[in-house]
Every structure is written in C-alpha cells, then in structure tokens.
Amino acid sequence: MSVVTISRGTFSGGKALAESLGRLLGFRCIDRDMIVERAAGERVPQQELRSVLEQPPGLLRRASHKRYIYLALIQAALTEEVKNGKAVYHGLAGHLLLRGPALLRVRIIAPLEFRIRMARQNTNMTRSEAIAYIEKMDHDRRKWTKFLYGENWEDPALYDVVINLEHMQIDEAAEVLASALERPTFQFTPECRSEWYDLALAARVRATLAVDPSTSNLELNVESRAGCITISGELLDQADAVRRVAGTVPGTTGLTVRQAASTDELWPWGALSADK
Description:
Helix content: 40-55%
Strand order of the largest sheet: 2-3-1-4-5
Largest sheet: 5 strands, parallel
Low-confidence stretches: 263-273
CATH topology of the largest domain: Rossmann fold
Oligomer: single chain
Structural class: alpha/beta
C-alpha cells in the first residue's frame, strides 16, 4: 500500500508508467490537474495555482510569499490524496512535495527519439516543432524546480529508482517497480499510516493559516504528533490569531504556538513534519 511519485520530462512516458503500475497493483493514479483542482478555492483560483507550475517565474520571483502560499495549498492537497497509500502521483515535483515513509520516488527518462515519437503521436507537431517543445519544457522544469525548491530536477540523488526506457518497455518498467515495492521498506504499516495522517494534518493546518486573512502574512513551521500540533515561526503579534485559525482545523487534538529563534529554511521541509 505504498505511495509512489513519478517524475518525468515531457513525453517521457511518465503517465503511461503510472497507469501501468496502477493497473498492476490496483493503485490510484493522481495527476497534477487533480491536485490543482483540490487545492484551489475561493481565495486562490485554479488558474493562479496552475500558473505556479506552468509559467515562467516573472512577477512571482519578486513575490516569494505568494509562492509560499501556493505551494502550501498544493502540498496539503497532495498529501491528503496519498495519505492512505496505494497511490501513484505523476506530476512535477511530487518527490519534493511529499516526505514520508513507504514512499518510492521514481524518475523516468527516455531517449530523445522516443520522446519525439510520443509528441508527434499525441499532437500535430512536426519533428522540429516537437524537438523545440521538448527542449523548452525541460528548460522550464529545470528552472522552476530550482526556483521553487532549490533543487536540481535531474539530480539522481533525489530519487530511489531511475528508469531508463532506452531498452525497457513501459510494462517491464512497471514490473520492476512492483517488485521493489514488495520490500519491507515500502510496506504501509499502521505506523506508516499514522505518520502520513500526521503529515496530512500538518499540511492542512499550514495551508489554512496561509489563506486566512488574519494569518496569511506569516510563514510558519508546522508539526503534528498524534494530532497535537506545534506551530513555530516569526509570529509578530499574531500568536492569538494563529491559535484561533489552527484550532478550527478538524483532527487537531492539541495546539502549541511558539516564537521561533530562526526562520531559516521555512520552505519546504523545515516547515512541515510528522514529528516522529
């Protein structure tokens, strides 16, 4: 009942691999559009969230707090979707947005000719148009991953498994991953489930704080342990507002709010923990 993230370049076979693995194991397949739809609301329309993942940084580069808010919403939605396990997420930066037990982080790569063929089968592009499109999308994803997360998208150290489709078919790759998921490391134990539930709750609390008008100017660390929430950060004079807003989130059984000594590394991973 593991959680799998699949990172891929445009037309590299990531969606096909996710669907094949999902059929083989009975896992749900989740894509970026599903997460954006779930994360959006009255205060942040879908198109604005989508632009975070699709458009060049532009003005958002000068609005880092807006970036924090958008990513808090996206992370909360994704964590909620996968917290019960048996899920495959194929979308940009899933391996960076999720951090929990029994999580298999996969990167799939494919030769350029494979990608060109896939592009032309799915669009009306010419060969030269397909090459230009693939190069542009890869460039944008490298730039965005560095900008949003401070990571090199192509760094193999970010993944547990790298699948190369040069000499392997999609179904064969799915069987390789299914075999890896049989290892004890990726078994979804009751302890794993508890930790994922805490991660989802922490993400939900931070997203709620990020969009509430009385606390939306803050960037906060949020931890959860068995529903007991600890929030820290530069609180200014808003500690009471933080307590009030966080206390409205279902599942919260206790609440501690404290002024942090440092606000370094608030995003992404210093700010969210299951505190295990």
